[in-house]
C-alpha cells in the first residue's frame, strides 16, 4: 500500500536509498525449476550501469547483485528470491549543499512536505538508483518468460532526443548496441552525439522518447477492464523516474485518425494463423494482447540537475537559487531504456502467470 | 486479480455486460458519515448518458442508479455501497450479424481467443457501457473528496478533435457545458460541430484528446515508487476504453525541452505559501502531488464501429468484410470526458485515504 | 481494504445489510466455460435458509438468487459474476427497541464507536444475513472445483451441541441430511432435539462445534509462509459470525501429544501412491495440502439474542437492561454448517487457481 | 500472491532459507518520524533466539539485524525498511541424511510435490528460522503502535505444556521472564522443568498452548466482514509453524456456554467510560475491538524431529524409517511465544493504520 511493490502474481518489492548501505528487493511468485544465476541478472545490470560513457552520470557503482534466497542448485525453488546490491560509491559530500535547499523539478520539496523528513543524500528513495532493482527483477522476469513463452523477446530503443527524431525507415535493431544511446538509426545516433556533447558541456540537460517492443507475446494476456495489459504497462512506465507520458501503438497519433485509418484489418495467413495487416493498436485490443508486437513509447523529461541556477526556496522558507554541480545525466532518457525494458518484462511475466491461473476452459 | 476492481483504500468492483439484465458495482472503503443520495450519483450519470445529441450513440438508456446498501438515513455507514443500474435498451437484434464475425479494432477476437466464449451482444463486457459504473463510483469519490478536501475540484474538457486543437488562450471553463463536446473554446466548438457532422454522415469516426484538471489537490498525495500518483493516473486513464496515450503536465512536449525550460521554479508567495512559477510537471513531482493543478491528457482513438466495410475474419476462419450498422459514436472522445473526470476523482480519493493512513508524524 | 472481499484469484466482494432492499456480491476470477445456472446456486442457498424448522430463526426469506452477469448461454465467460438476492422479510418493527440500546455480545456498540453511525435494523451489516452471499459464492466455487478437481468433495457436520458431543465411532455422513442439525450421529441427533427444545422454550441459546471435511484435495495447495492453506482456512472460518475458535486436524489436542504420537507416518500404497497412516495433521503440512482429508473444526458461540434481560447501556450512556424478543436462533452453530462448507470451497478454489499460476516446472 | 507477505497497510515481505547466506524482510507502510534503531529490533530477536537454555534447539545464531534502509538520523522516513540477518550457524552436514528422505510430520514431502525441488538443508523455507523475521517486523510494529497508541502493550505466555496447564489464579506476568518457558505460573514452571527434561532426554517432543494478550487496544480496530480483527489474528497465528488451532477469548469453551453465560454485560464506569463486566469475547465483537484485552490462544504441535524412528518414504518411493539426530526443540511452543507476540503486534499495527484511513466522520 506504500507503493514499493509492483505486480500481482509476479511481484517484487524494493527497498533502499541512494546513499544507504545497500538496496535490494524481493521477487516473489517465480515458479520453481527455472534456471537462474547471478550472472543472468548481472548482464542486465551492466547494461544499465551509469558511468560507462560521457553521456551518463559519472557515478561509479559496481552494482554487483547477490542472490540471497529462492535458488537452490541453480534452479528457482518457488520461494521468494532476495536480491541485494551494496552501495559502493556514495559521495555524500556532493549533496551537502542541497541538504536544506529544494532543487526545482526534483522530489525534494514534496518528500519534505509529505513525510516531514527526507534522506537528502543523492535523492534518497527518489533517486534513479532504485531502478537498478527494476532491472534486476526484470532479469528474473525474463527468465520466467523464457521458460513459459520462449519465443518472446523484449527490446528497447531511444527514438527521439530532444527535438531530434530517428528516421523510422532506418530502424535497425542491431544498431542499438553500437552507440551510447540505444539508437536504432545509426545516422541519427551520430548526429545525437554532437548534439548531446553540447548539452553536456553547457551543464544543461534534454528530454527524449523511448520505445519498447515485445515480440512473440502470446495472445490473450491482460485482464479486460481495470488491469488491461496497456493500463498496467502505462502504470509500469509512468512509475519510472522522469517519465511524463506513455503511448501504446499509434498513441496520440490515433487522436487524429479516422476509424477507417485506425482499424487494423485481419486476414488468414497461409499458416492458418490470423494475420493483422497493420498494428496501430500496438498489439493490444480491449486490454488484451493480440499476438502482434506490443509497442510502448514513453516521454522522458530532462533532468532538473543542471548548472544554471534556478529559483527555489530552502527549508526555512527563504528564497534561494539552486544549481547542481554534482555528477548528473545530460539525457536521462538513455538510462531509461533498460529500465523500460525491464518493466515490460515484469508486466508481461505477471500477466502470463495470471493467464495460467484464470483463462481457461476445461 | 481478474481486473474488475480499481483502487486500494477507495476500491470499487464492477460487473455486468452491455446486454445482461443489469450492471452494477460495489464501492468499498468509503468512510462513514458522508452525505450520499442517489441524486448525488444520478447527476453525473446524466452528464455521461449517451443519446443526448446527435454526436453520441443513439442508444437510449435510462441509467437510473439505485443505492442498495451502505447508506442509512442519508449518510454513509462505512459499509460497502452497492450500486445497480438496470439495462433497459438492449436491442440485441442490432448485433446479430457480429455474432460470428470479429470487428477489426474491437475486442471481439481477443475475447474469443482468451476465454473461448464471448457475450457478443453489444460488446458484452468490453462495451463502453461499463463506464457508467466508473461515473457512478466517481460520484461517490467526489463526495469523499468533498468531505476530506472541500477545496478540491475536478473538471474535464476536450482539447482536440481529430487534427483540430483548441486555442488554449481561449480556454474558458464555463464554455464546456455550453456545447456538446465539453470544449472550453467556443470558437473551436462551433467549428467542430460542422466537422463532426461530416464524419457522422459518412458513417465514419474520429479520435480526440481529453484533458482533466484537478485543482486544490492537497500536497503529498502519491506513494513514491510504484504507486506514484501519476502512475496510478496513467493506469486509471489507460483503462478507459479506446484510450491509447496518457500525458501528465507537459507530457511528450517535455521530451524536447531542456532542463532549464522544464523546471518549475519556486518562490514564496505573499501568503507565506510556496508558489510555483510554472506547472510543466502537471502538479506531480517524484510521484507526489505538489498542490498545483494536476493535469492529465488522454488520447482517444476513433471507434472501429464504422459503416465502411473492413477486412476481417469470422469464427470459422473465413475471411469476411465487416461494417457496423448499429448505433455508434462518431467521436467517442466526447463521452470519455466524464469518465476521465470520474477516474481522476477515484484515484485522488484513493490516495487521499492512503495519505491519512500512512503519511504522518507524531 | 475495508474487508468486504475474500480470496485472491477466486475473489468475491459482498454488499448489503439485513434490512436494505437487497444484498449481493461480485464473484471474480472464475475461469471461462464452466457450466453455471441459478439453480446451481439456489440449491445451496436453500440448504442454508432459515425458518425451515423450529430450531432456526423464523425469519422467512425467499433468498432467490439472480445471476446478473458473467454467464452466457449457461457457461461462465471469465467476466465477473454479479449475484443479487432481494430482501423480502424485513420486519423492521421487531428491531425498533434496540435502535438506541446496545445488545451485550452483539456488534451494536462497536459499530457505533467505529463509524459513529449504524444501521440498527436487524444488525445491519453485522447480520448473519450476509452469510447467504458466502453460500452463493461457495456454490460458484464448487463449480470451479468440480471443473478443475472433479474428485473433490466438501461436507460439513455439527459434532457438538453445547456440552453434548457426537460419538465419532457412529459417524455416518448419510445422516447429516436426516436431522435438523447436520449431525452425523443419529443417536446424538435425537438427544439434541430434546435438549435444544428446552433451550429454545427458555428463550435461551447454546453454542456448538462444526466440522468441515474436504476429501480429494489435490496435493500441493497452499502457499508456504503467510498464505498457508490452514492460515487462510483459519481466517475464512473465523470471519464467520459467532465463530470463536478454529482447529486443523488434531487441533488443540495436538498440544498434549508427543512427537511420536503426533507424526503421521507414510508408506507406499499398493497403487504406487504415498499413503499416510493417520491424519492428525488434518491434511495440511507446512501450510500445503497433503492429499489427505482437510479437516477443520470451528467453535460457534451462542447467540446473544436471548429473552433474559442482560445489563447494558444505551446510546446516551444510560444503564439499561436488554433482552431480545425478535426471532432468533437457539443454536446458530446449525446455520454455520453450510456457511463453513462454503468458506472451505472458496478457500480451496482460490488456492487451486493459485496453484495453476505458480507451482510448476517446465 | 505467493504468500510471503503479511498485512495491508503495515505490510512486510520476507525471504530467505535456513541455510542460505542470509534472511531478510522489507517492512513497508511505516509512517515517517518514528524513532527506530537496530537495538529496538535486536532486543526482541534476542528474546526469541534459540540456544539460550537446554529447552530450545542448540543452534547458535547471532541473529544480528541490520537496518538497510528507511531510517535516517534515527527516524523512519516513510520509505520501506529493509532488514537483513546473516545466517552464521549452518551446519549443513547435520541434514545430509534427510536429503532424500521425507521426515514424517514435516513439510519435506509436500514441498517436493508442489515445487519439484526443495532446499532440504534445515528445512529451507519451511524452517522456523523464518520466524526471526516476524519478530524483527514485530519490533517495528511495536514502535508504530507505541507512536500511535502509547498505552497499548502486548504480552505472551505459555499456558499449557503437553497435558499440564497453568493455574490461572496464579497468573503473574512478572514470572514470564523468570523461567525458560514464558510461564506466568511459577509453580507450574518448576514442574514443567522436570517434565520437559524427561521429554528432552528421551529425544521426544511435546506440544503446548500459548496465550497472547494485548491490553490498551483502541476501540474500533477491525474491518467488519472478512477482515475481522479476529479473522486476521487467526490467520496470523495459524501461519506460525506448528500451530494447529487458534482461539479468541472463551474460544472452544464458548461452544458449551449458554447465551446467558456467554454475553459480556456492559455498565458505565465511574470515569464515564463503558465498562464490560467480563471478557468472554476476548476483546472483539463483530470483528471489531471493544477496548478490552484482546486475548488469543494457539495450540502448538510437538515437533516431528524426534529420535524414535518413524515410518516414511524416500524420494525414490522406497519405504524407510526416519529419525532426526540434529539439534531440535523438545517443545517448540516455547519459541512460539515471542513469535505470536510479534504477529499480534503486526496485526494490530496494520488495523490501526487502516482505522486511520477509513473510519471517520467529519
Automatic annotation (TrEMBL), chains A, B, C, D:
<feature type="binding site">
    <location>
        <position position="286"/>
    </location>
    <ligand>
        <name>FMN</name>
    </ligand>
</feature>
<feature type="binding site">
    <location>
        <position position="48"/>
    </location>
    <ligand>
        <name>NADP(+)</name>
    </ligand>
</feature>
<protein>
    <recommendedName>
        <fullName>Chorismate synthase</fullName>
        <ecNumber>4.2.3.5</ecNumber>
    </recommendedName>
</protein>
<dbReference type="GO" id="GO:0008652">
    <property type="term" value="P:amino acid biosynthetic process"/>
</dbReference>
<dbReference type="GO" id="GO:0004107">
    <property type="term" value="F:chorismate synthase activity"/>
</dbReference>
<comment type="subunit">
    <text>Homotetramer.</text>
</comment>
<keyword id="KW-0274">FAD</keyword>
<comment type="similarity">
    <text>Belongs to the chorismate synthase family.</text>
</comment>
<feature type="binding site">
    <location>
        <begin position="241"/>
        <end position="242"/>
    </location>
    <ligand>
        <name>FMN</name>
    </ligand>
</feature>
<dbReference type="Pfam" id="PF01264">
    <property type="entry name" value="Chorismate_synt"/>
</dbReference>
<dbReference type="GO" id="GO:0005829">
    <property type="term" value="C:cytosol"/>
</dbReference>
<dbReference type="InterPro" id="IPR020541">
    <property type="entry name" value="Chorismate_synthase_CS"/>
</dbReference>
<keyword id="KW-0456">Lyase</keyword>
<comment type="function">
    <text>This reaction introduces a second double bond into the aromatic ring system.</text>
</comment>
<keyword id="KW-0028">Amino-acid biosynthesis</keyword>
<feature type="binding site">
    <location>
        <begin position="301"/>
        <end position="305"/>
    </location>
    <ligand>
        <name>FMN</name>
    </ligand>
</feature>
<dbReference type="GO" id="GO:0010181">
    <property type="term" value="F:FMN binding"/>
</dbReference>
<dbReference type="InterPro" id="IPR000453">
    <property type="entry name" value="Chorismate_synth"/>
</dbReference>
<dbReference type="GO" id="GO:0009073">
    <property type="term" value="P:aromatic amino acid family biosynthetic process"/>
</dbReference>
<feature type="binding site">
    <location>
        <position position="54"/>
    </location>
    <ligand>
        <name>NADP(+)</name>
    </ligand>
</feature>
<dbReference type="InterPro" id="IPR035904">
    <property type="entry name" value="Chorismate_synth_AroC_sf"/>
</dbReference>
<feature type="binding site">
    <location>
        <begin position="125"/>
        <end position="127"/>
    </location>
    <ligand>
        <name>FMN</name>
    </ligand>
</feature>
<dbReference type="GO" id="GO:0009423">
    <property type="term" value="P:chorismate biosynthetic process"/>
</dbReference>
<keyword id="KW-0285">Flavoprotein</keyword>
<keyword id="KW-0288">FMN</keyword>
<keyword id="KW-0057">Aromatic amino acid biosynthesis</keyword>
<comment type="pathway">
    <text>Metabolic intermediate biosynthesis; chorismate biosynthesis; chorismate from D-erythrose 4-phosphate and phosphoenolpyruvate: step 7/7.</text>
</comment>
<keyword id="KW-0521">NADP</keyword>
<feature type="binding site">
    <location>
        <position position="327"/>
    </location>
    <ligand>
        <name>FMN</name>
    </ligand>
</feature>
Amino acid at each position: 500500500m506504500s507503493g514499493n511493490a509492483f505486480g500481482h502474481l509476479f511481484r517484487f518489492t524494493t527497498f533502499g536509498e541512494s546513499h544507504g548501505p545497500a538496496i535490494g528487493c524481493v521477487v516473489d511468485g517465480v515458479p520453481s525449476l527455472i534456471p537462474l544465476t547471478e550472472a543472468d541478472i548481472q548482464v542486465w545490470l551492466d547494461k544499465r550501469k551509469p558511468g560507462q560513457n560521457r553521456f551518463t552520470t559519472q557515478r561509479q557503482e559496481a552494482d554487483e547483485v547477490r542472490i540471497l534466497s529462492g535458488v537452490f542448485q541453480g534452479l528457482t525453488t518457488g520461494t521468494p528470491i532476495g536480491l541485494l546490491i551494496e552501495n559502493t560509491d556514495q559521495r555524500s559530500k556532493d549533496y551537502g549543499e542541497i541538504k536544506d535547499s529544494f532543487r526545482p523539478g526534483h522530489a525534494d520539496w514534496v518528500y519534505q512536505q509529505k513525510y516531514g523528513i527526507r534522506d537528502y543524500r543523492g535523492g534518497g528513495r527518489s533517486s534513479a538508483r532504485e531502478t537498478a532493482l527494476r532491472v534486476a527483477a526484470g532479469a528474473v522476469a525474463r527468465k520466467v518468460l523464457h521458460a513459459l513463452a520462449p519465443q518472446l523477446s523484449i527490446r528497447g530503443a531511444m527514438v527521439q532526443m530532444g527535438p531530434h527524431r530517428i528516421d523510422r525507415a532506418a530502424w535497425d535493431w542491431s544498431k542499438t548496441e553500437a552507440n551510447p544511446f540505444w539508437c536504432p538509426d545509426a545516422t541519427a545516433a551520430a548526429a545525437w552525439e554532437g548534439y548531446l556533447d553540447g548539452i553536456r558541456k553547457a551543464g544543461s540537460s534534454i528530454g527524449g522518447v523511448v520505445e519498447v517492443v515485445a515480440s512473440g507475446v502470446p495472445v490473450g494476456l491482460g485482464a479486460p477492464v481495470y488491469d488491461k495489459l496497456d493500463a498496467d504497462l502505462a502504470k509500469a512506465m509512468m512509475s519510472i523516474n522522469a517519465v511524463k507520458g506513455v503511448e501504446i501503438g499509434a498513441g496520440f497519433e490515433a487522436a487524429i485518425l479516422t476509424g477507417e485509418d485506425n482499424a487494423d484489418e485481419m486476414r488468414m495467413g497461409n499458416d492458418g494463423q490470423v494475420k493483422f495487416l497493420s498494428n496501430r493498436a500496438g498489439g493490444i485490443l480491449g486490454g488484451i494482447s493480440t499476438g502482434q508486437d506490443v509497442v510502448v513509447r514513453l516521454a522522458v523529461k530532462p533532468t532538473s540537475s543542471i548548472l544554471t541556477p534556478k529559483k527555489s526556496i530552502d527549508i526555512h522558507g527563504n528564497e534561494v537559487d539552486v544549481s547542481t554541480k554534482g555528477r548528473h545525466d545530460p539525457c536521462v532518457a538513455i538510462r531509461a531504456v533498460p529500465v523500460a525494458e525491464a518493466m515490460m518484462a515484469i508486466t508481461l511475466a505477471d500477466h502470463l502467470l495470471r493467464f495460467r491461473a484464470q483463462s481457461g476452459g476445461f
